[in-house]
Amino acid sequence: MNYPNGKRRFTQNPTPQKKTKPDFSNRGMSLEEDINLTNEYYLEAGIAVVHKKPTPVQIVNVDYPKRSAAVIKEAYFKQASTTDFNGVYRGKYIDFEAKETKNKTSFPLSNVHQHQVDHMKAVVSHGGISFLIVKFSPLEEVYLLPSPMLFTYWDDQWNGGRKSIPYSYIMEKGTRIPFHYQARIDYAKTLDKLYF
Amino acid sequence: MNYPNGKRRFTQNPTPQKKTKPDFSNRGMSLEEDINLTNEYYLEAGIAVVHKKPTPVQIVNVDYPKRSAAVIKEAYFKQASTTDFNGVYRGKYIDFEAKETKNKTSFPLSNVHQHQVDHMKAVVSHGGISFLIVKFSPLEEVYLLPSPMLFTYWDDQWNGGRKSIPYSYIMEKGTRIPFHYQARIDYAKTLDKLYF
After folding, report:
1. CATH for A31-63+81-195?
2. Which residues have C-beta within 8 Å of that of residue B81, sequence separation ≥ 6?
3. For chain A, what is the radius of gyration of the CA atoms?
4. A contact residues 145-184, partner B, Cβ 8 Å cutoff
């Protein structure tokens, strides 16, 4: 897949899906892959600089063979202490987490972790733009939900509140992100409406 | 090592250096460790939210033993496509790379990579604050150098220019970051002077 300017796209995915025909549907691509493609497009088009953070790994044992690259022989996945994506858009710090659910009627709060919520609250308190991108996979619908809306549900769950955010709430209070071919999850346009 | 508020410090370093007495000197700590400690202090004190990005790793083979954590059995180091640190400070996006040199008279440009410079230029063009933290280890001196000063030397090297930035230039045009006990590399104070 090439951009009109002739530059090749790169991807963190080790086995990129090759397609013979352009596929305008969102099916088969994970939310994360779609956002990575969107970020690559944003970077090339000069719209925003946003990257996914690498998966944090605790490296225990590394082998250094002669004349070839170092091989990590033993390592473990660590829990991320922040959200997955951050960067700069129109001069502002933006920071978000992307979550997919197979649920049709609500977004289970178990998809998010306490330390991520702590991080989001810190970002908001420092004037950054913090949000969730939520995909309801069975519905093929993607929403942008500003973090403070998550905080309300998050904090309420410890006071006898529900353990999920209703789909109806996200549909009403969140903003639907339409699917585009180039900017597959065109969240920047949604941010324009909400924050600029 | 505890903060005055009683919270334990955490570190990405698997073998934290234990010290019986507070050590006010900077010796023995890497620049990266010092910046990580500074960022932890900034987070606890509500000054800024800045994290080091995890080392990017290409995971090839993972073992999933029963009843225990997944073990990464084969993986390789990948080159980072961005800088090491980013976050939000006083509402602004900040993004930087930290580099140590054993050189006393200049900072060799070979410490920086083209894709990092590309990233820094993109950050600047989107209104983010981009800079280098340079430590001259033999001198125990740390400087903040706004990225545009690097760009001049970086671009000139391909036009017959020198392959390093003179120490005298960094001393004059950069800003010295003094060493403090809590904010060991107190770059936020330096940013106050330069950007706010």
Report:
1. 3.40.1350.10
2. A51, B56, B115, B119
3. 18
4. none
Closest CB to B58 among A14, A53, A76 = A14
Asked if A89's CB is within 8 angstroms of B95's CB, the reply is: no
CB–CB of B57 and A57 under 8 A? yes
Q: Which of B15, B40, B49 to mutate to test the interface with A (most CBs of A within 10 A)?
A: B49
Q: Token match 């998550």: residue?
A: A150
pLDDT at position B81: 85
pLDDT in tens, B23-49: 444 456 899 999 999 999 999 999 999
Residue with token string 């000197």: B25
* Model pLDDT, residue B143: 98
What is the least distance, in Å, from the CA of B168 to any CA of chain A?
32
pLDDT in tens, B47-95: 999 999 999 999 999 999 888 889 999 999 998 889 999 999 999 999 9
Chain centroid, CA B162 distance in Å: 24
d(CA B9, CA B40): 7
- A109 contacts: CB under 8 Å, gap ≥ 6: A153, A154, A157, A163, A164, A165
Residue B158: φ, ψ to 5°: -85, -10
Whether chain A has a CB inside 8 Å of the CB on B139: the answer is no
Quote the minimal CA–CA distance from A165 to chain B in Å. 27
Least confident of A107-111, A165-169, B2-6, B156-160: B2-6
| Assigned fold of B34-53+80-195 | Trna Endonuclease; Chain: A, domain 1 (3.40.1350)
pLDDT in the model for residue A184: 93
> Which of A22 and B115 is assigned the larger pLDDT?
B115
Taking only Cα atoms into account, the Rg of chain B, rounded to an integer number of angstroms, comes to: 18
- Which of B130, B132, B128, B129 has its CA nearest to residue B144? B132
ipTM tops 0.90? no
Chain A residue with minimal CA distance to B42? A122
Q: Degrees (nearest 5) of the Cα angle B58, B60, B61?
A: 140
Which is it for strands B92-101 and B129-136: parallel, antiparallel or unpaired? parallel
Quote the pTM value.
0.84
